[in-house]
Design goal:
Keywords: Hydrolase
Active site: 173, 275
CATH architecture: 5-stranded Propeller
Number of strands: 15
CATH topology: L-arginine/glycine Amidinotransferase, Chain A
Structural class: alpha/beta
InterPro entries: DDAH-like (IPR033199)
Organism: Amycolatopsis jiangsuensis
Radius of gyration: 17 Å
Shape: globular
Distance between the termini: 32 Å
CATH superfamily: L-arginine/glycine Amidinotransferase, Chain A
Protein name: N-dimethylarginine dimethylaminohydrolase
CATH class: Alpha Beta
Number of domains: 1
Length: 282
């Protein structure tokens, strides 16, 4: 069932991002990456800059971490930390090509005064597979994050965790198949958008039970990384193609304001708006 059009209220957010100055596709660790195809770090940086500036224009705070040579995927900051109520759970990557990113983000948090910080023992690709709904942490598994990391996240962050199994390798992280439109409050439940076919049958049932008012996306929405969106409760940043697929129109009918951006170069590495955006929740 699609959501009803109700007044939507944006809330200021704080994000951590990493400029893609060393962006490249030198290896393939997901189905979207093709090292034989040309990519442009200049174009990727321009698209990233527009994303960052859009957040600031919408009233959000954006902090930046310094990119490092030899880590072309460091731009995808969402994969390197999960922050809820000021508690930080770092990342541990499955792919060796990205492993060093976790330490750079750990240092950033330490240098910026975060004392309640834990580095995981289990493989955990952070907000790539963790989505905070305001009440529970949705946790993906199947391709990257270990199932055991879900229990670890619950212990470290002190919030209830709901496990969801991903079954389509194109949607290897939870944030490629689901995103939170509105977090739960005392007055209203959370609302999400998701692509059902990316999940196992049991996980689909869980999502229907938890979010009967969800925005249910199509295969076309998912294929353009439309589910890799970022919402502040009213404004929803989406890939430009989501206008064509109809996802943006659906969200408009639900009272949201779509904001379309070109992220086509970043998508060559399997990323979109959310992949580039770690949310810091104090």
């Amino acid at each position: 069932m699609q959501g009803q059009a109700v007044p939507r209220v944006p809330t200021p957010r704080r994000y951590l991002m990493c400029p893609p100055r060393f962006f490249a596709v030198d290896y393939a660790i997901n189905p979207w990456m093709d090292p034989s195809q040309p990519v442009s770090a200049k174009v990727a940086l321009a698209q990233w800059t527009e994303l960052r500036d859009t957040y600031r224009r919408l009233g959000h705070t954006v902090e930046e971490i310094e990119p490092q040579p030899g880590l072309p995927d460091m731009v995808f900051a969402a994969n390197s930390g999960t922050v809820v109520d000021g508690r930080v759970l770092g990342a541990r990557f499955r792919a060796p090509q990205r492993a060093a990113e976790a330490e750079h983000f750990r240092r950033w948090f330490t240098e910026h005064g975060y004392r309640d910080l834990t580095m995981p023992e289990k493989i955990n690709e952070a907000e790539g597979d963790f989505a905070w709904t305001g009440r529970v942490l949705l946790a993906g598994t199947g391709f990257r994050t270990d199932p055991a990391a879900h229990a670890e996240a619950q212990e470290v962050l002190g919030v209830p965790v709901v496990s969801l199994r991903l079954v389509d390798p194109r949607y290897y992280h939870l944030d490629t198949a689901l995103f939170v439109l509105t977090e739960a409050t005392d007055a209203a439940p959370a609302q999400v958008a998701y692509y059902p076919e990316a999940f196992s049958p049991g996980s689909q049932q869980v999502l229907r039970r938890l979010f009967p008012d969800a925005v249910v996306a199509t295969s076309a929405d998912a294929e353009c990384f439309g589910l890799n969106g970022v919402s502040d409760g009213r404004n929803v940043v989406l890939p430009l193609e989501a206008r064509r697929t109809g996802l943006g129109e659906t969200l408009s009918r639900c009272g949201y304001e779509p904001v379309y951006l070109d992220v086509s170069e970043l998508r060559k590495a399997g990323g979109g708006p959310k992949c580039c955006t770690m949310e810091i929740r104090k």
